Amino acid sequence: MNPIDARRLQPGNPLWQRVPTRDRAGRQCVDFMLLIPGIKRYSPAAREAQWLRLRDSLAPFEQSLEYVDFNQQLGLIWVSLRPVPGIVKVVVLAIQQQLPEARLVASQFHPDPAAEPRRQPGLLGFGRSLRRHLWQRLGRGQ
Q1: Cα 118 from Cα 62, distance rounded (Å)
Q2: What is the DSSP letter of 60?
Q3: Cα separation values, 5 from 8, 46, 86, Å
């Protein structure tokens, strides 16, 4: 079954029920979501052209694809891939080459999130780093 077949449509089940969490070998899938702003204003023919360009951009990665969902009403593309190092970046760039208006919304860039160091974003992370650094400089440990 080809995950990028344009004619295989599934009725209204929520995305979280349709998206596979593991590949056929039992490894956790890598997912990302793209947004196409303003797609609601496109004509039906333009939307079909978008789908065909998406399908063409994903064709070289067919062996790594587990699931693709293109919600034309919301302008969202969800892609689930087998965990291959660096594949998310390559696939996102391939899609954006065909659909330059597509914007990356959400991604899990590492198939094993526990292996990545956890960082706090923005000022909170900076404040914690600064406090840790000052405590170490003052010789009081962490």
Answers
A1: 32
A2: G
A3: 6, 18, 24
The pLDDT tens digits along the chain (142 residues) read: 455 554 455 556 777 788 888 888 888 988 899 999 988 888 999 989 999 999 999 999 999 999 998 888 888 899 999 988 889 999 999 999 999 999 998 655 444 444 444 555 555 566 667 666 666 666 654 4
Cα–Cα distance measured from residue 48 to residue 138, given in angstroms and rounded to the nearest whole number: 63
Task: Name the residue among 63, 60, 107, 55 with its Cα closest to residue 84.
Answer: 63
Is the separation of the CB atoms in 72 and 51 below 8 Å?
yes
Residue type, 125: G
Indicate the burial class of 91 (C-beta count within 10 angstroms; 0-12, 13-18, 19 or more): buried
Task: Count Cβ atoms within 10 A of the Cβ of residue 57 and give its class: 0-12 exposed, 13-18 middle, 19 or more buried.
Answer: buried
- What are the structure tokens assigned to 15, written together? 């995305």
State pTM to two decimals: 0.65
